Amino acid sequence: MEAEPHKEPDGADETEEIRQARIFKHAYPIPKASGISGGKEDLPVNEMKYDEDACPVHLLPVTPMWQIAEVFGYGAKKYAVNSYRRGDRKSVPYMRTMGSVLRHCFKWIAGEEKDPDTGLSHLAHAATQLMILMEHSANGTSEDDRFITEEEKRPWN
């Protein structure tokens, strides 16, 4: 016997079982198909999607990500699509990329919102360069030329 439907504040009806699964297990019901599933009229509503361990990409802020994509697009036109991903491109060391990050940050700190060459946000340029640096660091596709001192000489240790 099915549990009594629970009325959500937004008006959506759901069984108590589904509500408990949604609240306590971070599971969400897969909606029923309505004649669009190749002849199968209805899929069981109790099938659940367990995605609590999924990367929460939906939390990324849209406007900054859009601005970063614009900078990547500018770079693709100026250099080549995905040029920063080439494994044979060891010619851009980490610190040169970090220098670009810092220059864009310093310009922004000094009050300049947009890069005069591109008309795009200095912060988006800095974020783009950080993403490229992260890609290089993760994949070893660039020279790691950081000057790393002994741990005991680092002021934060």
Largest sheet: 2 strands, antiparallel
User: What's the gyration radius in Å?
Assistant: 25 Å
**How are the strands of the largest sheet arranged?**
1-2
Please mark out the parts with pLDDT under 50 across 5 or more consecutive residues, or reply none.
none
Strand content of the residues, in percent? 5-15%
pLDDT averaged over residues: 79
What's the number of helices? 4
Q: Decide which structural class fits the backbone.
A: mainly alpha
Characterize the structure shown.
The protein has 2 domains: 5-54, no CATH class; 59-139. 11% of the residues are buried. It has 4 helices and 4 strands. With 157 residues, it is mostly helical. The strands form 2 sheets. A two-stranded antiparallel ribbon has the order 1-2. It has a two-stranded antiparallel ribbon with strand order 3-4. α2 (62-78) crosses α4 and α3 (94-109) packs antiparallel against α4 (122-139). 39% of the residues lie in helices and 8% in strands. It is extended.
